[in-house]
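Worked example 2:
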Amino acid sequence: AAALGRRDLALRDYDRALRLANGDPRPYFDRAEAFFNLPDAEAQRQAETDLARLVRLQPQLARPREMLAALHERAGRFAEAEDELRILQQTYTASDLYRLWQCRLLVKTRHFTEADRMLSLPLTDASRRGEWHRVKSALREAEGHPGNAIAEILRAYARDASVGDLFTLCRLLLSSGRADLVRHLLDPLPPEAEAHAGLLMLLFRALDAGGHHEAALAAIERAVAVPPRADSGVSDAELVRALAEELPAAAVLRLNDTLRA
């Protein structure tokens, strides 16, 4: 109720700002930005309404259209997201960001030939090479070529050493039956992975697959303690509980004690 009250006050403040703005569209952007990352459907609808108005009023601005594309993608409206990205590419012809983003959407909608064609175009910004490899990895995985997907994400990880790339690499290795390599990469856990619940979950799977049940339990207990985050690959403790079914009964009892603590 308190949160709803604060939102009502915020909406009144934005409405007041719009009335005083004399046609200035910036309050629409301020309100959209405020609600963009809120999780509930009402906030998302308000952000989308404001962003759609902004792209009509100021079609030359990139950021509102980027945010609108992201909202469409988040809601699974991939065709609408692609429409916004095509407009951005027409306006900013040298931008690799929008092309790679569209490629990722094409992979999600299984338009593999078109994604491959777009990835074959040269990059204009060398700093986007890591993202290029990530999209290429996603494409190869979706096509059913896990070895090629692993090779591409390895190239991305070699460039940027991001924890997200490490997560994808370990996930692909596990799905390819290489729990031994995941244990090599994650045991001991790299410092950047300490607060990444998804990597801890993959370490649990790799240790458990090798029969290291006590060490696996330690990994899953650490995963429970990590606050959920958007890029972690695991949403909440419910997934931890589900994965715990793979552990011996005694270990599950200990895990339940941890979850209740």
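The CA atoms of residues 37 and 44 lie 8 Å apart. Confidence is low (pLDDT under 50) at residues 1-5.
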